[in-house]
Specification:
homodimer; about 250 residues; alpha/beta; Rossmann fold; seven-stranded mixed beta sheet; two-stranded antiparallel ribbon; 7 helices; globular
Chain lengths: ~250, ~250
């Protein structure tokens, strides 16, 4: 049935960290999984047997440790909330740099773009991020931040998504690139992905002004905190890891 | 800011089982979490310390065991794949019956409707399910299966969703009922839920005929297998659990 069924298996890796956003991981994971066995998606974390906790307190077990993970074909970096320290985490950022050197596609969703940027992997590329954090991504002088609120942006082999739920649209586009349009359509039908949100407040271009004001106000603290952390990354003043096992 | 901020905390429970669909759980979980602290969403499984594995091989740790779980305000039953035995699992179905007796809302997404129906909790109610499994839900003589492919159906205090990704739209509707429209809109904006699928094959009403044919063919085996299991449920001929700890 599938015109690409002779292709070899493609390995997609989603590296987890404390306070990742669960839907950033599971939306794309589910979308990729629908292409099993052509796409294999695995999660990695600091240690294989230790669950990693999302910001929403979901505890998910990784399939691999950062150390044991083989070369990935696709690196997919999820966003998170209150994950500032990960921007300075040499283990995590080092993993991204190491994998990116051999990966065919380097991708992120939501605030995961800040982690790619901290690893220098968006320098010279056009990229997007959650609508509320565009100002933070703009602090990286060599990243070209896309106008507006696109669901995702493709620039050469970099693909970056907007906020949280954008990962579903982005992952479908990645499937289409890797396995073909018909495969992406079959996945869409199996997932019954015919979204009909009951309201029309999904990004600042359509949100009611009062809703946008309230949410922007709520996000202000995390935007400021992440901005300070990006300044540390850019000036090479990240705090040194303390003691044994730090950063692991 | 929130007109309902004086409301007390509402407890939502998502009971997991082997081979649940990960996005059925995490889409709604993320949507509900955006209303923290008004909504608290917790996962339950056979044992608190044992991860439950999704059909996609995600291993998630539950917050509670079925035995220790307090009375829920909202019961949310996810769908799954190759989960036929759960329809006859006295521990799981017993948990649904016990919780439903005191819950304010009794809800499901995707094939989770079959579990609610097996527990007798959809008798006399209108309901929906993943588009590919409508024929299986129709085997329950007292369930009124909705026409077409709605994202979700509300009938009194029963809310049932369509396939997998429908859970996002359904959860937003549940938030709107529990916490108010503005809360649901704020959650939508934070999650940047302004979906734009790159194709238009999300349900049988729009899918290309060749795509619909291929996916329907792929689903045939699981539809037949689930239908046989439903016949066992309806005729009271579920196999008896074997040996120590069965059904646990």
């Amino acid at each position: 049935m599938n015109q690409n069924s002779s292709r070899q298996n493609i390995l997609i890796g989603i590296p987890l960290y404390k306070n990742f956003d669960a839907l950033d991981v599971v939306g794309p994971h589910q979308t990729f999984f629908m292409q099993d066995p052509q796409l294999t998606t695995l999660l990695m974390g600091p240690a294989k047997c230790d669950p990693v906790e999302s910001y929403e307190h979901l505890r998910i077990l990784p399939d691999w440790s950062f150390d044991s993970c083989p070369q990935l074909d696709v690196l997919f970096v999820p966003g998170g909330v209150r994950f500032d320290d990960t921007l300075c985490d040499e283990t995590y950022i080092g993993f991204l740099k190491r994998q990116a050197a051999g990966a065919k596609l380097i991708t992120s969703v939501c605030t995961g773009a800040l982690l790619l940027a901290a690893a220098g992997l968006l320098d010279g590329y056009k990229a997007t991020i959650h609508w509320g954090y565009k100002s933070v991504l703009k602090l990286f002088p060599n990243v070209i931040v896309a106008d507006g609120f696109p669901r995702f942006v493709i620039d050469a082999n970099r693909i970056t998504g907007g906020g949280i739920s954008s990962g579903l649209d982005e992952a479908m586009a990645i499937v289409s690139i890797l396995v073909g349009n018909d495969a992406a359509k079959r996945g869409q039908l199996i997932m019954q992905y015919a979204p009909q949100p009951i309201f029309n407040d999904g990004d600042p271009s359509t949100a009611e002004p009062s809703i946008l004001y309230e949410v922007s106000t709520d996000l202000r603290g995390s935007v400021e905190s992440l901005s300070r952390k990006v300044e540390q990354v850019l000036s090479g003043t990240c705090p040194k890891p303390k003691g044994k096992g730090a950063g692991k």
